Protein: AB hydrolase-1 domain-containing protein
Amino acid sequence: MTFLLHHVDHWVKNLKLPGSKANIFYREAGSDTAPVMLLLHGFPSSSHQYRNLIPILAPKYHGFSYTSNALAGVILEFLEILSIKKYSVFIFDYGSPVGLRLALKNPDAVQSQIRELWTSNNDPAVRSKLAASLLSLEATKWQYEEGTTGLVAPESYALDYALLQRPGQTEIQLDLFLDYQTNLKLYPQFHEYFRTSQVPLLAAWGRHDQIFIPAGAEAFKQDLPKAEVHLLDAGHFAVETDTAEIGALILDFLARNGI
Structure:
């Protein structure tokens, strides 16, 4: 598929949050009066992950302690300062537990959901092994290239790996890996939220994703019978290789749901 990106002005900004003291770097595009699409990235990427998706959505949508709870708190404060009361949320990888926590804390704010385990007791030997295997350039590149026959822009995984080399990043990422176990305790609440809210949900998922397998996408239908699941001929970073198709699915989905 050939897709020509329209020229869309977007800005990179920094915002200091007075409550959590977090310094947020974000990308913003679109009209201030348009509905909001919140794009939450995953490991080990940054907002750079959505650099090609933003121009597709921007003409219609306004883009605005290392634990999932802490990150959700930062995002809630971020949204409050920007006076964002209603939004659709695109969740991916690390962004999934953060986005679902946003829904639990303020379910009326979420107009729709879109998405694309550690069992040790924080053993130092396990942390060392994970650091060597999961935070390497080879592992970062594999996440982008596994499951896809398409070309992957090398700057994507090169940038992610460069950011992982910053001082303190190894311990930060390992802390977030460890914190993933807290999500299991919240699963009953996540399921109850879906059953109660019946929030419109679109799952655009890589059919060949070896990290989050397709069965995870189909499972949404247990609580949300009307959930729309699209399995793409892609791997984990489907948004990197199948940007145009995912963008078209999102625009159609939100339009049909009046968002």
